[in-house]
Amino acid sequence: MSDQFVLLVAVAVLFVPGALVLVAAKAVSPAALLGVAPLLSIGLISVSAFVGQVFGVNYGWAVAVLVGLSTAAAAVQLIRERPVISRPTLPQLAGLAVALLGVAVAARSWLRGIGGLDTPPQTHDPITHTMITAFIARTGEAGPGAVQATDLLSGEPVRYYPAAFHSFAALLTHVSSDPVVALNAATVVICAVAGPLGIFAAASRIEAGPTAPAFAGLAALFSAMLFRPAVELSHDAGILAFAVGLALLPGFTVCVLDLAGPRQVGRLLVLALAALALLTEHPSVLFVAALSGVLVGGCLAATASGRLWLRAHAPALGLAGAVTIVLAAPWLLAGSALRSQVTGFPLSLQPDAVGDVLERIALFAYGPGFDVELGPFSDRGWDLYHLIFAVLFWIGFAGCLVDRRLRPLAVLWGAWAGLYLIWASGGAGAPVVKQIAGVFYSSANRLFDLPWIVAPVIAALGLGSLALHAARILRSRWQLAARVRPAPVVALAVALAAVLYAAGPGATYAEANQLAVANRWSDPIAIRVSAQDRAAFEYLASVRDEVGRVLNSANDGSTYLYVYTGLPVVNVYPVGNTETQYGIYLMQYFNRIDDSEQVRCLVRRWDITHVFVSRSAPLISNIGSPGDWTGPPGQFRYAPGLADLDDVASVTEVFGNDDASVYRIDPEVARTADLDACSESPSVAPSP
Prior knowledge:
There is one protein chain. The strands form 2 sheets. Strands 1-2-6-5 form a 4-stranded mixed sheet. The longest helix is centred in the last third of the chain and has 34 residues, at about 445-475. Helix content is about 65%, strand content about 5%. It is mainly α.
């Protein structure tokens, strides 16, 4: 199938089921169709995964049944009550056109950077995501008790991972048959299509003035060209699940504003479904939504009109929250065991001077993880900024402060920016700051990206507020201006400004995004899986009947063996995980198999028949490795137990090239090893 066809199907899968739910709930509006429909589609996918797990059916069939029921309910609703479609205004058309320009720019950056949907990502986190996608596609299991399997052969034990994104991608494997193509397509349509459209929808609902849609489109365009959050999270840290969750987050704003009305039970169920979607995309994204809601609610409580809105909507929001907890119970229970691992993740941070952090925030810096060799910035070092956007943002920020209705946006941005300022400048251990940061793995990438979500909306709507003030002044002073309708004129002016921005500074930002994506896909600066590795995979697939489990070091991209062939590898995390501690032990000591009864026992117990070794693996941080087995804090590349296997008598190289080797373990090991010589979970310690 062509990439274009796969992307078209991906857009349909992401938008159509949610749109059907909106029709059935009598909650159709342009903003909801653009911003809320993707969330509801993800919510349906998550519910289908749980239903499939409960009834023991393939999750894809559960999706088909629920979408079919939604289609029937939507059809009944359309027959009973035909919606009235109002004629769009010029500002609405202009805003939509600008938003679609943003979608086109973002999609161009992502697709050119990826270089073809079949290009495998080279960052360890997206590699893990392709593996989860492949597991769901191969097994049909996507429920909270099934993902992520740490043993790919048995499917157990399960280390919970929020898999809504992967479940969506797995559906696309029915079109592409390739988990890599499916994952890349899912990434593009969420980050480059749903993301900007969600910003447009949210901005158009936050501000309801006659010119608001045009400026909402400008917000979408701004967001499409910013490095953070989506491109940065994929580039600097490979945090893809969090990135796609943040891309869907603005749509939740539309959901709250449109659906949280009194005495609207059907709509409240839809709101709860949207919240479930955020939770199953990544729990910390729902936390962002909840804490942001508390901050905005505090701002509303300070004004009479805000208190009136809260009194009218708070009961409905509370009920929706209760329904969400009930719906989310299976995922909350499955993920509860990981709470301490997330909040207690080791902190690796050298505090910066307050002035440096303020500069980074105020000028919208790319950040130290940004590769300085990227084309247009190659001669500037790492201190790179979105300078033109920063100027527009601060003008818009002033506009939000002037406009009482937009002040909560400024407060929200200030709160998230302030959190990062305190955390990065030496206050990481401060009360409240430490607890909030812990939800985000105490990760600088995640914390710094949070204010960027609302920044495009502040810039655009603040500029819109100032433009309306200027238009009123002109109308009051100039007789000619009084005869001119300001909304169409302002809308056309915004559309023209948007084109100029996209062709000027925006083009530079978009080029940087494209090159950043290419650094992890089509033109990687660190290679985990190469053509030579793929050749080794093909060899193993050709002798599939002889293969049990394949011992590997996941840092070298060897999990792609499972993605492409379905053959199970032992280690699925770069530094291993406690659920398969035997894999860590073997990464440490496998090359002692000739003399170690414990190694021979583990090989027999886990039916390990082959070993895959790649000679290309990047340096990664070893902070948080189980039992600190990788040694003192520093960097990790190769598993010591897989070194020098040519000198080990119990293994024989059966395939080799310049980058990869496959070794076959002597079958005599499996016949003669003492099964009493090892436990299923051998203890690990720092490597000597």
